[in-house]
Specification:
alpha+beta, four-stranded antiparallel sheet, 8 helices, 8% strand, globular
């Protein structure tokens, strides 16, 4: 096994420890591990992304913005409008006191929840709950409830991501 393979294995092991720490809620440890990965390989986009999420969890918004921007620079293919908007909101939050920052972020989350609770169906805006009730009678009776189409639909709706589904676009 060569040096590069050992390096990659060690870096991946540290990254995995960061993921485990984050999942356990040990954000300080997650920051420590993801920082080590970034020091070993400054071009590791997922490490920057997860380090940014860890900083958000600790309300270190300036550091979060820095690492989100590194991630966006390193992996522009995965960057979407929502992430850019979120980073802009965090940047605003980083420039004010904690109370105002919390207010900015609460307002952003509230707007996201409102937007994700609506969908446009053939040009008409309706509530997602109403749409899902409609799927009970339409899709479930046609036997789609167990199929991959319904699984993709449910996954996208729970993740609140944009989705095209037979003329339905979740906002």
């Amino acid at each position: 096994m060569g040096f590069i393979d050992l390096f990659r294995r060690d870096k991946d092991a540290i990254y995995d420890k960061g993921i485990d720490a984050f999942k356990r809620g040990d954000i300080a440890a997650a920051i420590k591990y993801f920082t080590k990965v970034v020091k070993l390989d400054a071009s590791d986009a997922p490490a920057h992304y997860n380090l940014a999420l860890s900083y958000v969890a600790t309300k270190h918004y300036g550091a979060a913005v820095s690492h989100f921007r590194q991630y966006m620079r390193l992996d522009p293919i995965r960057v979407n409008k929502d992430l850019r908007e979120y980073v802009d909101i965090l940047d605003r939050a980083a420039s004010v006191d904690t109370t105002k920052a919390d207010e900015i972020l609460r307002d952003y989350v509230r707007k996201q929840e409102q937007a994700s609770s609506q969908a446009t169906v053939f040009g008409k805006t309706i509530r997602v709950d109403d749409l899902l009730q409609g799927t009970d009678s339409l899709l479930f009776k046609k036997g789609f409830s167990e199929g991959p189409i319904m699984q993709k639909f449910e996954k996208a709706m729970s993740a609140k991501i944009p989705l095209m589904f037979y003329g339905v676009k979740a906002l």
